[in-house]
Amino acid sequence: MQRVALVTGAGRGIGAAVALRLARTGTAVLCAARSLESVHDTADAILAAGGTAWAVHLDVTDPLTFDDAIAEHGEAIERRGGIAWLINNAGIAETAPFLRHGRETGVDLYEKHLRTNFHGPRRLIERFAPEMLERGHGRIINVASSAGLRGYPYAAAYVASKHALVGYTRCAAAELAGKDVTMNLVCPHYVDSPMTEQTVARIVKKTGRPAAEVREFLAKENPGGSLVSCEEIADVVARLCGGDDNGMLVELIGGRGLIPDAQAEQWRAL
Asked: What is this structure's pTM?
């Protein structure tokens, strides 16, 4: 039976790469994002390649959109056994000194990041994991960040939200042990993605340094010496979906292809 995967944040960057990669394995993909317009390109690319995909509006901060996102295609999804794979990728990243996360704007960046980066994935898991357990199969992959493993200056809200997601995944995966519903975590360092481009733009604006210089600096910050590609992350997600690993943390450090036999991925138990 053809599996159905729900990929959040599928309109660009990591999410789009994951959706396209899973579609190549024969998976039917619900390409979800807050902006329906942004995911049409991803879904259309899958359809053009002969795959199965639907573009759906889903706001991870609004649980009322979860059922609406699948309702239109409910019959087709149920024929395929329901949502079998959930890839929690949607997220935000904004920076500020840790004592001024919202002081000037009136927006609490800590609350905003936790609502999107932690509570969003948690609520989606609470919505779909019970059905997976009832069917006896499911794969849940949370895309966090190296920010869930360490700290970065001026990113306290983002870092805190990703640490929360890592801790939650560690506990939930332990409770799922022995069932054919698995939960794993992907933690890339700086990624060659639109989110990193936003980081580059902020640093350029603040420092006046050339964008190419800032990008090179971020690449060198990665242990592997280069930015992680969205396709690398998509490959790891596809392997986790197709395998039986549970409670694994995959840290992507960059450097794939730069040095022969370099270990650009580090797999370890949570």
From this structure: 0.95
